[in-house]
Design goal:
The complex is a heterodimer of chains A (297) and B (323). In chain A, 72% of the residues lie in helices and 4% in strands. With 297 residues, chain A is mainly alpha-helical. Classes of the chains: A mainly alpha (297), B mainly alpha (323).
Chain lengths: 297, 323
């Protein structure tokens, strides 16, 4: 039972963590809550869905199909996120802080309804892309899809970590998140870096969407909403703006959800997740791994 | 100019009182939409105290609407008079809001937003799961039960038009209260906190207490609105209090113009009234595209008027934020 919940929690946690990275990176660089990120997640899931259902000939080459599908989802969601930034957020960079939030809500409503009208208002089954085999593991069951989700997320997170800390572009991203003006003075094209952040965050969100579709086996136009709130919660729990914090927060939230579903009540698992969020913020207002921010005067 | 301005307000009030009588038989739907706008006005004017004046982002305000609606429904089913229910709901809304504010008002802006969001979801999910009290997703009243009707002297509130006048009355109270607050010592303290908390503290404002008062005032209006709505519609379910509804309230305030009463009124009219009018005039084929267009228009409006359509004069005087 315990091990089973840990396995379920780690799987959920990987999805939340990937999803949370988009929220935290955008917040880190623009100090805005990108509400429409949950729609990027949804669009990513649909992209994988189209890929699987429209290119059936590829299923003869499973080794090719899955990487190609994820690549398509990354590019599609990443480009969508960049477009979103260009159209709806960039004009508002100097506006009052609530303005981009409202713009993001508008984008979110637009994309959800677009998808509902263009595709379907019903939930659709996600095509199987994977021969799922189950393994017994100390009395718990773990299937190959869960292992795949976990490993893929870890690989992507490690790549992101290397990218942010070891490359020149990563350094530029860190510089911009500290101070736009000074970064610009150092010769960094701030707009390009912001677009880059949206692309990376969006791509990771798209992957999370595909994984979510594969894991639960169905997708719907409003599927991004609840995971979106939870991923955002994860980002806040970890200290928003902090990449490692978001990863840790994602896993914490996933484990918490699995444990409360397993031991307390699956009906109330969401209440427990949110109650923990409130408690964490009461004790540590900056999130678990957030640095103490002194208010600027 | 000044003499003409004196007549505008009475004219509007007169128009609002006469308007439903004109449509009473020709278009009862108009009265219903007007009532709905009024309900949202009370909510938004309440929320405006938190967001517009004090600058605290609240993404779970529907929780207080829900608290008001559920308390009203439960009491009403047990034959408690509406005129007793109303103060009870307002008190409950205020107390819960106060308790929520105790630990939360210390948080920085965006953290406060996420915690209020979480609280909103907790209230909704709890209403959904506490079947013995709230009848869960099936909503209240249960089969065989009914709300007791509102009696005002000998008038029994049964028609939309009765509720229209009831709502109108409370909208006026909310507007007058907001106006009085805006020009009061407390209102100026709220604005000072919004502009610079540290400076406000240094001028001798008790920041924690003042924020708490603003928070509680909002909660009272939220619960009040919920209590009236429950009686009017005669049915409530957790589905009415989703996160989207809370976000919508924020959108109304920001699009109209934060911290400006006329702005809030305009925002409510645009976001509640216009979609309903469009539904009526453009026919059923359009209904599907309504929300799609709505989302796009929302982005366009905020890009062209980031301060809202009718920006608050006081906000325009604000020094540029250093963040």
């Amino acid at each position: 039972m315990l091990i089973q919940q840990i396995i379920n929690g780690l799987t959920l946690g990987s999805i939340y963590a990937l999803f949370a990275l988009g929220y935290t990176m955008v917040y880190g660089i623009l100090l805005m809550i990108n509400f429409a990120h949950s729609e990027i997640f949804m669009v990513g899931a649909y992209c994988g869905f189209w890929f699987l259902s429209m290119l059936p000939f590829l299923s003869a080459f499973p080794g090719l199909l899955i990487p190609a599908m994820f690549l398509a989802a990354i590019i599609f969601s990443g480009v969508l996120a960049v477009l979103m930034e260009r159209v709806a957020y960039r004009p508002l960079r100097r506006a009052p802080r609530l303005a981009p939030l409202i713009s993001a809500i508008g984008v979110s409503i637009f994309l959800q309804n677009l998808m509902m009208l263009a595709v379907s208002a019903q939930s659709q089954p996600y095509p199987e892309s994977f021969n799922i085999t189950r393994f017994q593991f100390y009395g718990a069951t773990v299937n190959s899809l869960q292992i795949f989700i976990f490993l893929l997320s870890i690989v992507l997170m490690v790549l992101l970590e290397i990218f942010i800390h070891k490359t020149k572009v990563g350094q530029a991203i860190r510089a911009v998140s500290q101070n736009h003006v000074v970064a610009q003075l150092m010769g960094i094209d701030v707009n390009k870096i912001i677009a880059m952040v949206f692309f990376i965050g969006g791509g990771l969100g798209g992957v999370a969407g595909v994984l979510n579709g594969m894991y639960y086996g169905s997708i719907k136009y409003n599927m991004g909403f609840l995971p979106g709130i939870k991923a955002f919660t994860a980002a806040v729990v970890g200290g928003i703006g902090n990449i490692r914090g978001a990863i840790a927060g994602g896993f914490i939230l996933g484990l918490l959800e699995a444990f409360s579903a397993g031991y307390i009540s699956s009906e109330n698992k969401n209440i427990i997740a949110f109650a923990v969020l409130i408690l964490v913020l009461m004790v540590r207002p900056g999130g678990l791994f957030g640095e103490e921010v002194t208010e600027k005067i | 100019m000044k003499s003409a301005g004196r007549y505008i307000l009475p004219a509007i009030i007169l128009l609002l009182i006469v308007f439903p009588l004109v449509f009473l038989h020709s278009n009862p739907y108009a009265i219903q939409v007007a009532g709905l706008i009024g309900i949202y006005l009370i909510l938004c004017l309440g929320l405006n105290i938190t967001i517009g004046y004090t600058g605290l982002l609240d993404l779970g305000f529907m929780a207080f609407y829900a608290i008001g609606a559920y308390i009203a429904a439960i009491l009403s089913i047990n034959n408690v008079s509406f005129w007793i229910i109303l103060p009870v709901c307002m008190l409950a809304g205020g107390v819960v809001r106060w308790l929520l504010g105790l630990p939360l008002l210390k948080l920085r802006g965006d953290y406060l937003a996420i915690v209020t969001l979480a609280f909103g979801e907790i209230v909704r999910i709890a209403a959904n799961n506490a079947v013995s009290i709230t009848n869960g997703p099936k909503g209240l009243p249960r089969v065989g039960e009914r709300f007791s009707s509102i009696n005002f002297f000998s008038i029994k509130f049964t028609e939309n038009i009765h509720f229209y006048y009831l709502i109108l009355f409370f909208v006026f109270i909310a507007i007058v209260a907001s106006r009085r607050l805006e020009n009061s010592r407390l209102g100026r303290a709220l604005v000072a906190i919004r502009e610079d908390e540290v400076a406000a503290e240094l001028t001798g404002i008790n920041v924690a207490a003042v924020k708490s008062v603003a928070f509680v005032l909002s909660g009272i209006f939220g619960a009040l609105s919920g209590a009236i709505y429950a009686h009017w519609i005669g049915f409530i379910s957790p589905e009415m209090f989703t996160f989207w509804e809370s976000v919508f309230l924020v959108a109304m305030i920001v699009i109209g113009g934060m911290g400006n009463i006329s702005g809030v009124i305009l925002g409510v009219f645009l976001l509640v009234g216009v979609p309903e009018i469009l539904r009526d005039t453009l026919g059923t084929r359009f209904v599907d595209y309504r929300m799609l267009i709505f989302g796009a228009v929302m982005v366009a409006v905020i890009i062209f008027r980031p301060q809202g359509i009718l920006p608050s004069k006081r906000r325009a005087l604000e020094l540029e934020a250093h963040v």
